[in-house]
């Protein structure tokens, strides 16, 4: 079956530009998560969505970061006025519900490089 | 906040059993323990999950002592393809405080 799909797989952009990263979760999964992973580091939680509830944005590093999830399915992470420290792999995951004991299914990420 | 502590790295020869221990001294009553595996250029992949005692699946075993303050992921007879980073995650209800993957344990399997 189809897993979590992220696009683009790689993105190179100039400092100061805006970028949009897309995540298609597994069909029927109500919970969706965004993480950031810098080179050689662990995963840093950014934001998560559960059903129609307000998203938990507590992990977003600055107001340049935002995310939305339309129709409870596809999600877009937007980074405005990108900075070099935004360079990282951005991972999306989905799970059947928002209980931690429901395994998260990850995409392979978008590698973002800010020049 | 049920944060976890794992060794940064481990090396093992092919065919050996590997045990990776995760410490979680502040684990709460409702928390589960979940392990993920991550290969380079891929997202993490669920391996195994448990609440107490022992859990075994086709990939690994998870040992949890009675006090639940630690857990041990056991990989039997590792092969080169088991070279990866292994993350221990502890929590119950999803939320920012329970989505702490840490830096994981980098396992290198040597031929």
3D structure, described in words:
Chain A has 115 residues and is mostly beta strands. Chain A is 0% helix and 46% strand. Chain A has strands spanning 5-7, 10-13, 19-24, 31-37, 43-50, 65-69, 75-79, 88-95, 105-106, 110-114. In chain A, the strands form two sheets. In chain A, strands 2, 4, 5, 8, 9 and 10 form a six-stranded mixed sheet that branches. Chain A has a four-stranded antiparallel sheet with strand order 1-3-7-6, with no helix packed on it. The radius of gyration of chain A is 13 Å and the shape is globular. Chain A starts with a strand and ends with a strand. Chain B is mostly beta strands. In chain B, 0% of the residues lie in helices and 47% in strands. In chain B, strands 1-9-8-3-4 form a five-stranded mixed sheet, with no helix packed on it. The model of chain B has no long low-confidence stretch (mean pLDDT 90). The chains are: A mainly beta (115), B mainly beta (111). The interface between A and B is medium-sized, with 27 and 26 residues.
